[in-house]
Amino acid sequence: MSTTAPERADPGRNAALAAVLLAGTVVALTVGVYAKLHEPARRPLFTLGFSGMLQMKAWLTTFAAALLIIQLVTALWMWGRLPGAGHAPGWAALLHRWSGSAAFVLTLPVAFHCIWALGFATVGARVVIHGLAGCVFYGAYTSKMLGLRTRTLPGWTLPVFGGLVLASLVAVWLTASLWFFTRSGVPLT
């Protein structure tokens, strides 16, 4: 039987965690509620050189998802969790930061068109899952970015937030980009 006293919860740590989670939740809910209440324009504002809005969204999300895979690999490497890889060099942290920033920037035109042009639709399970995953992505991203600046958070929070960012974007990609790329008769570019 252990004679050590149980660890007491640190009120500052708990308050910081609650604030970071609250901020992410507010962002996710705000995006979802606005997308649901906003009257969709049903047309793109821009396509960035792609032949249509769906093509732009599918490809930008695919590029963002690929960059988040780089995020995952560099995070595992920096934390010593890549088997046989040894210690990560200094440039791995820079690659991690820039690939995450680039992935986020690539999601912005996609999210803008999802919200502005299409709204939060509830016409089927795939579409609902896609919309919810998009909201979770921005909420988790908010929590992760705030968590990076908050030194009092428990050590498990950043990997969990980062994993949620990755998982939600993968869900977004599976329910939209993969769906789009597997449609027959739709131009891909």
- Number of DSSP-assigned strands: 0
Structurally, the number of domains stands at 1
Distance between the termini: 66 Å
Main sheet? Answer: none
- Rg: 19 Å
Number of helices: 5
Low-pLDDT windows of residues: none
Helix-strand sequence? HHHHH
Query: Quaternary status of these chains?
Result: single chain
Strand content: under 5%
Shape descriptor: globular
Mean pLDDT: 92
Helix/strand structural class: mainly alpha
User: What proportion of the residues is helical, as a percent range?
Assistant: 55-70%
Structure in words:
The protein has 189 residues and is mainly alpha-helical. Helices cover 69% and strands 0% of the residues. The radius of gyration is 19 Å and the shape is globular. Helix 2 (53-78) runs antiparallel to helix 3 and helix 4 (125-148) packs antiparallel against helix 5 (157-181). The chain has one domain (12-181). It starts with 10 loop residues before the first helix and ends in an 8-residue tail after the last helix.
